Write a sequence for this structure.
């Protein structure tokens, strides 16, 4: 799938940018948020929390979060939630990013 | 009706200040939870927290204040939900969540009474109460978290344990087939029957919200991983691996016949809304028949002596 121009209604729509908040000491390391994040924003960190579990942390491309809130819904421990940071305008760069991501060139998605 | 949310008044003030100091602020769901009770005692990988989060999500979606909804739960791991929610919650004796909730629903018809309990509580010792509440069509929202065993007491075989499943009391495999809960609820007369797994949190929020809109006995079964009690003897792996199993093996089929929804060990799980019917609930029939007749009799029309 390839877009040859910006969609005509791109000014009407926007991309929400979320910020993931992790309350690390509540985490019990079940890994649900890491596994089921639709944009694969999270990974297991190497450090320990107060209980001795590995809490999740954001991977390098942290702006991938689109504030969908699935992590806060699927977390059994009330340890993670997302906040809306801004509603970004759609640019050609975003279109390119989306087309490469779902065409399995992105390693994070090819793995699944 | 006036809707209000109670202000957050933590009794563990220090824990709140510590959390704010760490730069996180408190979780948005915390205003529905008793402060100082989280972290809860459920095992890592347990699905009960997901169901509780989804229940809170449905309350938020419907904009219910804490005084508009009451939660009754029985005994077991799921029964602890009553201790965590910061609203009118009742932790009743084993299996008697439904009788208690029936009385509450009849005394306070404006309140949404949710029964939040496990399969061992609702179907083993409380089985009779459930089928009769469904027959009467009392206005209750039953959420049954099914983890296929008695988790809190050490993973014994329960009424929902599938055939051939290993538990601590059936080390050579269970000789009895388990209950098909949606089918039982449907046959007893529930007006809304749904089943979801913890892998379907969005659908579960929607389903709980839908059940709040209906007047009558609604039944939602949620299949939750129990890595300690059920996953370990059956080699199902951690909670995450059970969630992957739900992702791969569950099939969403709305309006399916609940008779087909039987669960086998490592088999397919049929999920969806199986039934959404309308039937006058107990309160309505009581009002239209008994109370109307009594009032007519009070005016001296054909009253028996």
């Amino acid at each position: 799938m390839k877009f040859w121009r910006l969609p005509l209604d791109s000014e009407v729509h926007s991309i929400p940018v979320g910020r993931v908040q992790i309350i690390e000491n509540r985490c019990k390391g079940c890994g649900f948020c890491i596994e089921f994040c639709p944009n694969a924003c999270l990974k297991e960190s190497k450090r320990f929390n107060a209980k001795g579990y590995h809490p999740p942390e954001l991977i390098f491309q942290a702006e991938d979060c689109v504030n969908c809130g699935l992590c806060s819904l699927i977390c059994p421990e009330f340890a993670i939630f997302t906040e809306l940071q801004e509603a970004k305008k759609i640019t050609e760069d975003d279109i390119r990013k989306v087309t490469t991501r779902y065409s399995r060139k992105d390693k994070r998605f090819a793995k699944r | 009706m006036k809707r209000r949310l109670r202000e957050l008044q933590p009794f563990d003030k220090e824990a709140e200040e510590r959390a704010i100091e760490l730069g996180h602020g408190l979780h948005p769901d915390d205003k529905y939870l008793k402060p100082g009770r989280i972290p809860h005692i459920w095992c890592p990988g347990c699905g009960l927290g997901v169901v509780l989060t989804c229940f809170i999500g449905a309350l938020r979606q419907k904009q219910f204040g804490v005084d508009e909804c009451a939660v009754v739960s029985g005994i077991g791991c799921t029964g602890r939900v009553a201790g965590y929610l910061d609203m009118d919650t009742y932790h009743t004796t084993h299996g008697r969540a439904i009788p208690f909730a029936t009385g509450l629903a009849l005394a306070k018809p404006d309140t949404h009474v949710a029964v939040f309990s496990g399969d061992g509580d609702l179907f083993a010792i409380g089985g009779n109460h459930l089928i009769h509440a469904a027959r009467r069509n009392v206005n209750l929202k039953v959420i049954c978290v099914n983890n296929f065993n008695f988790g809190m007491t050490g993973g014994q075989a329960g009424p929902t344990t599938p055939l051939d499943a290993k538990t601590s009391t059936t080390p050579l495999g269970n000789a009895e087939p388990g209950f098909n809960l949606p089918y039982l609820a449907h046959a007893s007369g529930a007006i809304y029957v749904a089943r979801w797994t913890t892998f379907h949190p969005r659908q579960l929020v929607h389903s709980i919200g839908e059940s709040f809109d209906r007047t009558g006995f609604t039944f939602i079964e949620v299949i939750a991983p129990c890595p300690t009690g059920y996953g370990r003897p059956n080699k199902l792996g951690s909670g995450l691996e059970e969630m992957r199993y739900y992702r791969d093996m569950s099939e969403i089929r709305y309006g399916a016949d609940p008779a087909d929804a039987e669960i086998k060990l490592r088999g397919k799980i049929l999920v969806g809304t199986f039934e959404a019917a309308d039937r006058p609930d107990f309160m309505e029939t009581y009002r239209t028949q008994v109370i109307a007749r009594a009032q007519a009799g009070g005016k001296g029309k054909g009253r028996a002596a």
Remarks:
- The mean pLDDT of chain B is 89.
- Strands of chain B lie at 69-73, 88-91, 112-118, 141-146, 149-150, 156-157, 192-197, 218-223, 250-252, 269-276.
- Residues 282-298 of chain B form the longest helix (17 residues).
